[in-house]
Amino acid sequence: MHAKEFVVGIRDNRLFAPLLLGLMGLRPAEVAGMRWSDIDFEADTLAVADTRTVIGNARVLEKDAKSEAGERTLPLPGPVKLALLGFKVLQEPERVAMGGYYTDSGYMFVDTLGQPMSTRQLREHAYSLMAQLGLRRVQLYDARHSCQEKVIFPPSR
């Protein structure tokens, strides 16, 4: 996949920020398990501590990161920080519009009703966008090396 073409092509998509996290190297279950409280916008870091997966399209499994090494604090590159801030701002009018129907789960990766989204939804959405852009279908996580080559996420200063 041409990661830069993908990032440019999806920049106006509602799920731009969660997709960028996948391109940074977070596993889909880590993106799904990310809570707003895991993101420190002042320190420009995000803590990867929990995962959230759906088993058999029915049962939700929430647990600690896959391994001890999986629990980590990562720097938050400027473009990803801006995307996350934009996503957080976008969720507020959704919450207001839905009133009592909105679920305030604390998760970052939620639908317009505040319901936490699944790893499957993230993957299927990414694949759909890749097809729309005429790009080869790859897992977001697999694109992490091309995204970390200073092209998309330049090193923090």
UniProtKB/TrEMBL annotation:
Q: Which organism is it from?
A: Streptomyces vastus
Q: Which residues form the Tyr recombinase domain?
A: 1-157
Q: Which InterPro entries match?
A: DNA_brk_join_enz, Integrase-like_cat_sf, Integrase_catalytic
- The entry's protein name is Tyr recombinase domain-containing protein
Alphabetically sorted, this entry's keywords are:
DNA recombination
Classification lineage: Bacteria, Bacillati, Actinomycetota, Actinomycetes, Kitasatosporales
